[in-house]
Amino acid sequence: MNIGQAARASGVSAKMIRYYEQTGLIPPAGRRDSGYRDYSSEDVHMLRFVRRARDLGFSMAAINELLDLWRDRSRRSADVKRVAIAHITALRERIANLNQMVTTLQTLVDCCSGDHRPDCPILADLEEPAEEHPRKRPSGALQRPNPRT
Q1: Are residues 141 and 93 in the same domain?
Q2: If 0-12 CB within 10 Å is exposed, 13-18 middle and 19+ buried, where does residue 116 land?
Q3: Which residues pair with 31 in a beta bridge?
Q4: Is 51 helix (H, G, I), strand (E, B) or coil?
Q5: Spatial CA neighbour of 20 closest among 64, 78, 77, 65
Q6: pTM for the whole structure
Q7: Is the pLDDT of residue 130 over 50?
Q8: Contact at 8 Å (CB) between 24 and 61?
């Protein structure tokens, strides 16, 4: 099948298929005499594998490692599990960071009176240099600014 057909069958855009080939994530497709790429059902299966791994948020490097393990019939499932556990750890860290951002923003929003005055703790916090912001603030550490100062 051509690249358009492979894209439809796999759910991966033709542009991404070309990119995956360029970066070496997947092997280049065979070529017809006309020069067009020619994809097999095995190629589409591999593209679906890549798409599912991307849907789960795996990095390109991790997908490459998973593809190598997938192709290796003498693989150890422990190696696959190690990759998945590392990804879970990274996801949990990202979730914790996002939750901390929500907490900080919520605290700032709660401290903002949202009235006609120009004083705004949200803007005051944003204008501080990043190095003055601790990575994690204890809850309630932000105080509402005194509008008289």
Answers
A1: yes
A2: exposed
A3: 37
A4: helix
A5: 64
A6: 0.74
A7: yes
A8: no
